[in-house]
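Q: Study each token:
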Amino acid sequence: MTEYFNEMFEGREVRPPYAGLDGWMREMPAQLRAMKQAEAEALFRRIGITFAVYGEGGDPDRLIPFDMFPRVFTQKEWRRLERGIKQRARALNAFLNDVYGRGEIVRAGRIPARLVYQNAAYERAVAGFVPPRGIYSHIVGVDLVRTGPDQFFVLEDNCRTPSGVSYMLENREIMMRMFPKLFRENRIEPVDGYPEALRRTLASVAPAKCESEPSIAILTPGHFNSAYYEHSFLADLMGVELVEGADLFVEGGFCWMRTTEGPKKLDVIYRRIDDAFLDPLCFRPDSMLGVPGLMDVYRSGGVTICSAPGAGVADDKAIYTFVPEMVRFYLGEEPLLENVPTWQCAKPDDLKYVLDHLPELVVKEVHGSGGYGMLVGPKATREQIETFRIKIEDNPHNYIAQPTLALSTTPTFVEEGVAPRHVDLRPYCLVGEKIELVPGGLTRVALTEGSLVVNSSQGGGVKDTWVLAE
């Protein structure tokens, strides 16, 4: 039987970070816990925090499961993670700057040219263009897993439009409302500075043609998008406009926003739509979500798009394997956070190993996300394994494989009481004039016993994440 690191308990002893929660957990009657759980769900529903799952029938808008038991990090643990995440964000942006410019890392033979220039996420439309401050990925979501007291691994990077930060903020808000005594008794670093930090980051990358206080807006695909709640939530907290493509137009080398008082020039667009839909004159001509001519304005320095078109080439799961090499190549440093060991099925030797060990491995699509398009070998049936074997053999370039990690567990409220469940963590790193992280992130929890898949679309839930103040 696999042993998992329990973040709260070492044997029967409570680890120091969780000392302030032990009594709270033991003294809460089942009836009070059920009442508080119902209160949390009512608050989430009243606020409108849902996510969308399409293609499965029924109501696509679902309430994300919320677990009231917080996950806790010490200040020392967080400082280590923070340094590693900032290092990774710097390296990823240096890589983007390079591959849309001279391509030195490819010339040096450190990364195969095919993985970069034949990558579906590489946008030739921005090759040679350098965005303000040379920053391509302004919000980097780094997914982390833990396997021991001092063992953290990066599972993947999200350099385009990482979602979930609204849950991080609302989890904290609801916990403070329901258990104010907990927050009086424990010194916990705040996360409510994120919206202001995001606005500061976006303003700091305004184009050179911006001569006054930058005008900022969030560009959303609309209310049918699975993360629409988050788009409107962040726009409200930052005090900026939430717009759709039809609200914007291009004229005179600038992007303009239609308002009741007439057109208003827009300087920075925090886009939450994919590259393909940004501008029908540059990308997909059938897109009704974007703004015709937007890319011309972007390339001429009339508007900044965050994150930059083409940033997705840095978070491809095949490129992921080379991030430690990016850290060494661009920063001259050793990586502070390790990758999960990864086999690339495009390599004949790796492919043979993966096919021989499918029941032991996690296999992922290179461009997959949300927990879809993956095989968790130890949890899969023989039929599922053989179906995946055929897929890999047919298109090995489309897959990578990793060992099944012994993800750490944290206490989680379940029907029977409290039980350990597997978790991961997504902190949000803001990259602008400076690099900032709020202390914490989104902890996702696999609510099904034994499951290692934490994605909300696959039945996972969320928790409040505490970083203890010194």
